[in-house]
Specification:
Radius of gyration: 19 Å
Oligomer: single chain
Strand content: 5-15%
Distance between the termini: 54 Å
CATH topology: Rossmann fold
Number of helices: 11
Order of helices and strands: HEHEHEHHEHEHEHHEEHH
Shape: globular
Bound molecules: thiamine diphosphate, magnesium ion
Low-confidence stretches: none
Largest sheet: 8 strands, mixed
CATH superfamily: Thiamin diphosphate (ThDP)-binding fold, Pyr/PP domains
Structural class: alpha/beta
CATH architecture: 3-Layer(aba) Sandwich
Strand order of the largest sheet: 2-1-3-4-6-5-7-8
Length: about 300
């Protein structure tokens, strides 16, 4: 194409992807890739991060990208590392394993656990939108209590998903990973700094970024940034960073801490909680979870 007609946009993720307007995952991905740089190889799980970027025969990645099965990107990454070692390129190339919460919390756990235990020098980046979104909003073990999903609908007998969100960073920490962090797309400077930090650390790094899903959370595109900010500010989604197993930093909640209901009310997936007394008591339970996080991580 003639230079004259080229969009004035330069990124390792090209704008020709098909992510929804207001997608938090694609924003996080673009930031991560542009920080990791050109010498990066991506091993991707299926999910929105795959289907919105690599519809055959096109690709939105200006980087090498390998997709195989849902469960095994970390094993593919081990093979990529072996190849890089053989070619004496291991110090020059970043290897990224990325995917959604369905991959990291459920389907990829076994092989990720193996790769983490082996100490593979890979960045594992989880786009946490709290459900299997690509296939139509099924609950995962990252789904929070009382969330409406297609497999946990709210109605007369249920207020939505009936289990607590799995503590995946704690599972990563149990593998003695040298770097474990959470972030949200509500504070991209913090997320960027964590990706950058991860590149300076040898070994497996796990970063979990809370990423709005407009159709799955049933929210307005204009609230893509605000909702994760409220999740962090209310204490419901603690933003923390561990280096060598020790808590190295936390993002404090503001003095005037927003209530969890401020976060919930912007999303259709929690609309049922505002309808009756049972819903209001469930909101109190979610508020208790946030309060517990504030105490546990000393967020105030
Ligand atoms: C073993 C296996 N199970 C199920 C699927 C179908 N599948 C493809 S993508 C997907 C959802 C992915 O959810 P998540 O990892 O949270 O990513 P998101 O789409 O939410 O970004 C599912 C269930 C599959 N491809 N392989
Ligand atoms: Mg998901």
């Amino acid at each position: 194409m003639s230079k004259k007609y080229t969009m004035p946009f330069s990124s390792l993720l090209s704008p020709g992807h098909t992510a929804c307007a207001g997608c938090g995952m694609i924003l996080a991905m673009r930031h991560a890739l542009d920080i990791l740089g050109r010498d990066t190889i991506i091993c991707g799980a299926t999910g929105c991060s795959e289907v919105t970027t690599t519809k055959y025969p096109t690709s939105a990645f200006n980087l090498p990208y390998i997709h195989s099965l849902f469960e095994n990107p970390s094993s593919v990454a081990s093979g990529v590392l072996a190849m890089l070692n053989r070619k004496n390129l291991a110090d020059k190339v970043n290897v990224l394993v990325h995917g959604g919460d369905g991959f990291f919390f459920d389907i990829g756990v076994a092989l990720n656990s193996g790769a983490w235990h082996r100490g593979d020098n890979v960045l594992y980046l989880c786009y946490d939108n709290e459900a299997y979104m690509n296939t139509g909003i099924q609950a995962s073990s990252s789904t929070q209590l009382d969330t409406y999903t297609m497999t946990s609908p709210a109605g007369k007998k249920s207020s939505g998903y009936q289990r607590l969100k799995k503590d995946m960073p704690a599972i990563a920490l149990a593998h003695r990973l040298p770097y474990v962090a959470t972030a949200t797309i509500g504070n991209l400077a913090d997320f960027d700094a964590k990706i950058k930090k991860a590149t300076s650390i040898n070994g497996p790094k796990y970063i979990q970024v809370y990423s709005t899903c407009v159709p799955g959370w049933n929210c307005a595109e204009c609230n893509t940034i605000k909702i994760p900010q409220l999740a962090q500010q209310s204490g419901l989604y603690p933003v923390v960073e561990y280096i060598d197993g020790k808590l190295a930093s936390v993002m404090k909640v503001p003095k005037d801490t927003p209530k969890v209901s401020e976060f919930l009310k912007l999303q259709g997936r929690y609309r049922h909680l505002f309808k009756d007394a049972k819903g209001r008591s469930q909101i109190r339970k979610l508020q208790e979870l946030a309060n517990d996080n504030i105490i546990k991580y000393k967020l105030k």
